[in-house]
Amino acid sequence: MLSEKNLIINCKKTLYPIVLCTLLLCTSSSVLAQSSNERDSLAYKLQSLKSTNRFNPKDTTHIKLVADLAFSYQYLDSDSLYSIANKALEYSREINYPHGIIRGLDALGSYHYNKGNREKAIPMFKEALELAKYIGDVDSELSIINTMAQNYSFEGNYAEALNLNLKGIDLAREINDQSTLSVLNENIAGLYADQKDFKNALMFYDTVQKFNRNLGNEVVDAETQSNMASLYKDAKDYKNAMFNINRSIVTFEKHKVYDWLAYAYQVKGDIYLDQKKYKWALYWYDQSDMLFKHHIEDDRIQIQLMNGMAKVYFGLENDSLSLIYAKKGLAMSNKIKSLQGQIDCSETLYKVHKKKGDNTEALAYLESFKTLSDSLFMDKNKQSLSLLETKLGYEQEKKELIEANEEALAKQRNYIYFSIIILLILSIITFVIRRSENIQKKLNRELKDKSKAVTQREAQLHEINKTNTKLFSIIGHDLRGPIGGLQSILKMFTEGDISTKELVSFIPKLKTDVDNISFTLNNLLSWGLNQLNGVVTKPKRFSLSYLVNNNIKLLSEISQSKSIKIINQLPENPRIWADNNQIDIVIRNILSNAIKFTPENGLITIEAEEKGDMWQISIRDTGVGMTAEVQRNIFRDSSNITTYGTNNEKGTGLGLSLCKEMVHKNNGEIWVESIPRKGTTFYFTLPKAQNRYQKAS
């Protein structure tokens, strides 16, 4: 994630030759295309979702896409960001969808903060942060901590920014998130750089570079080099500044990372400006300006670029342009209450008016510059002290917690030592007693072994009896009825009670009954073999898409009869390491249930996403849903009650029990989420196929 100072926005027209303009405009078009492609992709997915027959704007899939679309407009179109984020938050609150609420609050908080309305932004960030903590969403928690820390840093509240970054570092360490650790340490380095504490800033940058080397991402490393170049520029170490910025520019140009490239161009311009090399500074400012023309919307970064341009034109003795850019920068600084921007632009305006001989205006800007500088100097001193106190306080807090843990461990060790002594005494007593009771113990052991064997045998008989009872129950309840009906119709036909034409009219019903009998028998045989340990799981590498497509075709006639649309949204060719026959049964059962319990004109969506070394597959329907009580009991072996679908389809509870056994045999998990009258989503996980052999349990 980019820090606030890394987001560059254009603010002027280039004065260089037409050839350079053409080149930069082409580059800018590439940037615009890159951003617009992302938004177009999101918009296309939204349109595809809305075109389905059973589209629901409050579906979580739709809300996720809306939130992503809102964030794609950040720094580009604040009005679109605001309206779309508001819609995502509204839908999420209506269905109490925590992740959507967090994302909506985060986007709206960013909108208000970028507009300078901190009174509205900070409560939104805090509400999102508390909700993320409550639901255990660590990724969102870290993201919001990072955003809040950057915003506090921008407004000069370095103590609160440091405190948030330190908390984020502890949280990122718990989950070993190397990427976030790099970002948060770089944030702290930036805090010290703003305070002109270059020694501590470089110390944290050393830590950041260690994380970057572990990540092995040269683009991330180049981002750090850009920030270090800015630090070296402030420290007047132009040699190291130019070395770092040139290395970062090469990487950004190689990978076409245009937003960071624009920032790097601006830093290079700042380095030349500091050395009074105005023409070179103007060249690099123009490079940065053209990359982001009409592309990014961020007043905070415009201030920095405008004041830089004002200083360049002042150095080139073009006072009229210098005055224009300095006034624009000051107006923006006043609008968003940027104290540093007001100071920088007031100083430039003072110099321009003094040079022009306009002493009244020059004196007014000088007084403003002096007053604001004195205020900032006092604030900087206070913030430096707060920064140190926050760090020391945080370290003291950690030290006290460590000492408390050590004290608790010491007490536990004493308890352990005491317990060991007691155990030794008891062992000696036991040894003495056992010496006189060897014969009796031997007899007891034999008796115990025999009793254990009897108990195991009794348990086996009980399970066999239970299995038989269930088998006969299913056969009697769910197979005898359809078979009896089939026998009755055939008997009536052979005895002449019904004609051939009448028999033909029964064929659709007979086909449905036979299909149900076949489906139930397949499940019954698979389950029975599992119960009697007759099935061995044989994992191998196979395509999940192949199984899903086969089952969609297999059940297409049933789904089409109810006008149910099945959407396959699997990624391109996910590879699974499992027993393909068993997983085929799982997919067929869950998909069949989804069709059975979804009303006509419904929608079933099949998706998969990577979760570490596992694939998480979801089958979502817009059916009748189920209560919390049903969800608790749905996977139990004892759940053999016949259920009926929306068109009175018949089936047993055996299928989901079988699914659970099959998924567990392949080292996965299965669960369900459902809302009555809104729909149900079944989730299950399976190992990814690797380039090495794996073994299922």
TrEMBL record:
Pinpoint the residue ranges of every TPR repeat in the record: 102-135
Signal peptide positions are 1-33
- What molecular functions are annotated in GO for this chain? kinase activity
Name the reaction it catalyses: ATP + protein L-histidine = ADP + protein N-phospho-L-histidine
Q: Which top EC class applies here?
A: transferase
Spell out where the chain crosses the membrane.
Answer: 415-433
Q: List its EC numbers.
A: 2.7.13.3
Q: Which Gene3D superfamilies match?
A: 1.10.287.130, Histidine kinase-like ATPase, C-terminal domain, Tetratricopeptide repeat domain
The highest taxon in the source lineage is: Bacteria
- SUPFAM superfamilies in the cross-refs: ATPase domain of HSP90 chaperone/DNA topoisomerase II/histidine kinase (SSF55874), Homodimeric domain of signal transducing histidine kinase (SSF47384), TPR-like (SSF48452)
Task: Tell me which stretches of the chain form a coiled coil.
Answer: 391-453
Keywords recorded for this protein, A-Z: ATP-binding, Coiled coil, Kinase, Membrane, Nucleotide-binding, Signal, TPR repeat, Transferase, Transmembrane, Transmembrane helix, Two-component regulatory system
In this chain the Histidine kinase domain maps to 474-690
Cross-referenced InterPro entries? BphY/WalK/GraS-like, HATPase_C_sf, HATPase_dom, His_kinase_dom, HisK_dim/P_sf, Sig_transdc_His_kin-like_C, TPR-like_helical_dom_sf, TPR_rpt
Quick check: keyword NAD in the entry? Answer: no
The answer to whether keyword Transcription applies is no
- According to UniProt, the name of this protein is histidine kinase
What is the phylogenetic placement of the source species in the record?
Bacteria, Pseudomonadati, Bacteroidota, Flavobacteriia, Flavobacteriales
